[in-house]
Amino acid sequence: MNCQEVVRWLTDYLDGELDATLLETLEAHLRDCDDCRIVVDTTRKTIELYCRCEPLPLPPGVRERLDAALARRLSQRGA
Ligand SMILES: [Zn+2]
Predict the structure, then answer these.
(1) Which residue of 13, 32, 66, 73 lies most exposed, with the fewest beta carbons within 10 A?
(2) What is the pLDDT, as a whole number, of residue 57?
(3) Alpha-carbon 30 to chain mean position
(4) Mean pLDDT score, 16-22
(5) Of 5, 58, 51, which is closest to residue 27 (Cα–Cα)?
(6) In sequence order, which ranges of the chain are alpha helices (DSSP H)?
(7) How many domains does the chain have?
(8) Domain range for 8
């Protein structure tokens, strides 16, 4: 699994809806990848914040912002 795939499965992961194989693969990646741990952490906190008010999934635009932030990190690392 790479960072893009982690982002793709992120909401399912946080919702506890990943199947066991995917879950294991994703958590193995998280152990090795600081960037994705931060993304997961931030997103989980964002969701918890929203859940206190109303039971909504990720607000619109969050996924796009995460994608953009991750792309920036990856390109910086590659530079
Ligand atoms: Zn990663």
Answers:
(1) 32
(2) 66
(3) 10
(4) 94
(5) 5
(6) 3-15, 20-32, 34-53, 62-78
(7) 1
(8) 3-78
